[in-house]
Amino acid sequence: MPPHSPYARKPGALTLDALERRFEQLAGDHPHLDVTRLKDALGLKSEYLAARMVAGLDTNGDGVVSRDEFLEGVRALVYGTDRDRLRFAFRLHDHDGDGFLSLDELERMIDIGLAEDSVEEHTTQSPEVLAAALLRAADRDGDGRVSFAELEQLVSARPELLREMARAEALWMAPNRDLLARLSAPSSAPEAVHPARRWLENHWRSVAFVGLCALVNVALFAKALLASPDAGHTERLMQLGRATGAAMSFDAGLLLVPVMRRLLTRVRASWLGRLLPVDEAVGFHKLLGHTLVALTLAHVAAFAITWHAGHPAGSLTQLFFGTQRGLTGTLLLAVFAVIWVAALRWIRRTQHFEIFYFTHLLYAPWMVLLIVHAPHVLAWLGLPLLGFGVERVLRLVRRARRSELLKLEPLRSRVTLLEIARPAGFTFSATDYVFVRIPAVAKHEWHPFTISSAPERDTLTLHVRTLGNWTAALRALADARQAERDDSALAVYVDGPYGSPSAHVFRSRFAVFIGAGIGVTPFASVLESLVSRAEGDERSALEKAHFFWLSQDLRSFEWFRDLLAEVERRDRRGLLALHLHMTAGRTGATAFGLELARELAHSHGHGDLATGLHAKTQMSAPDWRAELRAIQRAHAPHEVDVYFCGPHGLGVKLRRLCAELKLSFREEQF
User: Fold this and answer.
1) What is the pLDDT, as a whole number, of residue 21?
2) What's the pLDDT score for residue 294?
3) Which runs of consecutive H residues, i.e. helices, occur in 127-194?
4) Which residue, 479, 499, 519, sits at the end of a domain?
């Protein structure tokens, strides 16, 4: 780096080796960055925009960006002053280099910015209209062009644009976790709390319940293991097998409880829902499954070693297939192995969901084999099995009710809309989910989906993302019916409703809803229901809701754009704050003119250029730490609850951050 650089020794600045690694990543084996390499590396659509970026970073005018020029330019953008960043953006927009921005230059960069984000032109907010509005706002002396001083004066009232530019440049030019953490650092340091303590404060119910179950396991194991304290070595191994069997009997009975959906829905709605970790039922079911696998392997190993020691002339084949208990144990092991492997995440979350679904139906023969293998298991299994049986009977009775699929519409981003006639007597709450079976798609398969319509509506709507074979067949049917203009009603069977972790939303006083992609569906129901309750003067504890919707492209926002527009219109009490983020959108210096024009249009009451809504769409991912801290401070000292539905990776990240900030966190999952 040149020794005169004002950023060379700046405290806390991005380390030189991090920037050099980024340059090597962009340039590859080449000593410099040219227009083509920069365009491909940054995913730009416009070669002209890439050329402007090269021109902005190229200080010696040779048409390429060297290592030193890259290091100097990026550090100026990320750690420089607001004036440094604005000067860089000005140079990008000043195509002829005369020191002024003309109407044509502004219009061209705004047009390129719209194309980069795939935003369709609006007749009322076309590039021509936006550029003219920006010129009128900035041109103080009326000479028909914008000087740097005039642009600086206009931007001085909007410092958040320059701060967002710094973060945007850091994200694509010099991605570094430490950098982003510093850019997002609060003005005052947070209270120092050990991470383990934060985690425990948010998960004490789960810890207490799992701990209690673990104590029961240990007690049963120890009782069986210590039954004969004077036993020999072989007898000890036999006792070990019996001890693992005792723990397995308890866990097998407990395994059924988390899948009793009707029971959990009732528990969640009662006072017990505040004490028991009902929202973690799926996770607890998985934990029990893994525990049973470990205990089963130990159980088999103990008896196999005991058999070999007591029957040295015999073979293990005789143990596994020569006796009734051995044969049933072998079958149990085989069936359980199939169920466990097919339930692993890499199978369940792919297009092979049907493998998971159908292999899980093997629970019935597994239960029968377990009772035949060890009849004493009924001491622990009997009551849960009875309850599970009642649930299954109720489910079969409810599932026999036929309804009609009134609308089957293919939406963008591989999402299919289902509108179902509400069955007689069907009542549900916002965020509830149902299982549906559509014989025209598959005669016997049931699949769970969150209800996206509010309880106040006469119909049920579901938004289904195309992921597995069943959803792909549903999408194909929707496409075919649309092509043939077939709007005849289809038979559909509905099982439910069932409560979800987000059923607590109306108990919260202040809430944050985060939906990513199709994860917006439970919150669509909540937003509509919240406004409907307020209009009907129905009392609700929820005073303010902050709704974040993240999507990679603008097409996905079309799913609920009409609903959000209606919610904005009807929300006269200011209950909702909408935050829409197009995560693949481009911000920063390259789109500065467009962002400034959008900001001016929004401040004058125009709808958002991207969605038409009053809420402005941010062309970047949220700075979660800054966003959640701001909401937390706004509602202090009251508690803020965070509800999330979306990709697993983002859920993990948000869960950790909420634990750090002492915010309660609930994640929607099936």
Assistant:
1) 67
2) 92
3) 127-138, 148-155, 159-173, 177-183
4) 499
Residue 592 lies in a domain: no
pLDDT at 16: 56
Question: Helix (H, G, I), strand (E, B), or coil: what is residue 489?
Answer: coil
Residue 564 lies in a domain: yes
Give CA–CA dist 340/128, Å, rounded: 60
Print the domain residue range for 109. 16-183
Sheet of 490-498: strand order equals 447-450, 433-437, 490-498, 402-411, 415-421, 459-465
Ramachandran bin of 210, using left for φ above 0, alpha for ψ from -120 to 50, beta for the remaining angles: alpha
CATH number at residue 470: 2.40.30.10
Asked if residue 543 and residue 495 are part of one domain, the reply reads no
Give backbone dihedrals phi and psi of 640, rounded to 5 degrees, phi first.
-115, 130
Mean pLDDT by 10 residues, the chain (670 residues): 42 51 69 75 70 76 77 70 75 78 78 65 63 77 82 73 59 47 42 55 78 92 75 70 90 89 76 75 88 91 78 68 84 91 75 75 90 90 89 75 87 84 83 87 84 84 82 90 87 83 73 83 79 67 85 67 77 81 62 60 58 69 87 90 83 86 76
457 with 557, same domain: the answer is no
8 belongs to a structural domain: no
Q: Is residue 6 one of the residues assigned to a domain?
A: no
Please give the Cα distance from 625 to 277 (Å, whole number): 26
Whole-angstrom distance, CA of residue 377 vs CA of residue 380: 6
The reported pLDDT for the residue numbered 219 is: 92
- 416 and 289: one domain? no
What residue type is assigned to position 317 of the chain? Answer: T
CB of 586 closer than 8 Å to CB of 113: yes
From CA 531, how far away is CA 523, in angstroms rounded?
12
Specify which residues 491 forms β-bridges with. 404
527 and 486, same domain (yes or no): no
- pTM for the model stands at 0.59
pLDDT at 20: 65
Residue 669's nearest CA partner among 443, 492, 431 is 431
Question: What is the reported pLDDT for 54?
Answer: 77
**Rounded-to-integer distance, Cα 85 and Cα 90, Å:** 9
Whether the link from the prior residue into 365 is cis, omega within 30° of 0, is no
203 and 350 inside one domain: yes
Structure tokens at 181: 């953490």
Residues 527, 651, single domain; the answer is yes
- Residues 506, 495 share a domain: no
Q: How far is CA 16 from CA 21, 58, 71, 593, in A?
A: 9, 19, 8, 30
